[in-house]
Design goal:
By secondary structure, the protein is an alpha/beta fold. It has helices spanning 3-13, 25-33, 45-54, 72-80, 93-99, 103-112, 132-137, 150-160; strands spanning 62-66, 85-90, 118-123, 140-143, 168-171, 182-189, 194-201, 210-213. Helix 3 (45-54) crosses helix 4 (72-80). The protein binds S-adenosylmethionine (SAM). Residues 35-43, 65, 67-69, 72-73, 89-92, 95, 125-127, 144 line the site of S-adenosylmethionine. S-adenosylmethionine is lined by residues 35-43, 65, 67-69, 72-73, 89-92, 95, 125-127, 144.
């Protein structure tokens, strides 16, 4: 699908949804105590497409968004690239409940026009052991981690280091403990700022170290 058509489709699909939710102090306390950072923000579609092109996201890749919010990144990847499968994991019950509302509309699109592409939007904490089998399926991982603590990033690193299929990780904040080597910084445009995201990847370790995905 052409990117302009995909963007229009996404705007319609998500027009009644809002990721910028209010939580009660009890909800915030409970999430924070379980390593969940509720800060929300979205990434621009064309930046995602430029990133996908840079890492050659293809039909054999399984894309994973850790902290998937409304699932828009996963849906964008399925509609805008050759990627056949996307998995999103989101802790916020309120966001997840909104995210899955698009599934009936989207399923028809994925089956008829996009040759049986697969989308899984899972609710829960991505640090929880029951999510590890899904995380292990991923080949490319995306983490909109701007507001995540370094403690949370260390815990995510320990999980990702157990996943041999992962060939690329894009994180909005640096990791200190990843086995996969740092490859380059990539500029990503988001709703709140322009981000210098870190790409960790074996195959791109010696590539051009700075680039723009706008
Ligand atoms: C900045 S938002 C990003 C949403 C989406 N990935 C995007 O880029 O549009 C980060 C999301 O991560 C979720 N999150 C934070 N910690 C989490 C955890 N431990 N497990 C699952 N989700 C988490 C938050 O609830 C939030 O929706």
């Amino acid at each position: 699908m052409h990117h302009e058509i995909v963007q229009e489709y996404l705007t319609n699909l998500y027009q009644e949804m809002n990721g910028y939710l209010k939580y009660t102090p009890e909800e915030i306390k409970n999430y924070v105590n379980h390593d969940v950072c509720l800060t929300y923000g979205e990434v621009h579609y064309l930046s995602l497409m430029a990133f996908s092109k840079k890492i050659n996201l293809g039909p054999h890749d399984i894309f994973l968004d850790l902290g998937s919010g409304l699932g828009k990144i996963c849906v964008s990847m399925l509609l805008g690239t050759e990627c056949q499968e996307a998995i999103g994991i989101e802790a916020s019950v309120k966001l997840h409940e909104q995210a899955i509302k698009i599934l009936p509309k989207l399923e028809l699109q994925l089956k008829l026009k996009l040759k049986n592409k697969k989308l899984s939007l899972l609710q829960g904490n991505f640090l929880s052991p029951d999510k590890l089998p899904d995380i292990k399926k991923a080949t490319v991982v995306f983490i909109n981690a701007t507001a995540f603590t370094y403690d949370l990033l260390d815990k995510i690193g320990l999980v990702l280091n157990q996943c041999p299929n992962i060939r690329a990780i894009l994180s909005f904040k640096p990791f200190a403990n990843l086995t996969l080597p740092f490859s380059q910084t990539i500029r990503i445009e988001a709703s709140w700022d322009s981000i210098l995201a870190r790409l960790y990847s074996q195959s791109y370790a010696n590539a051009n170290r700075n680039s723009e995905c706008t």
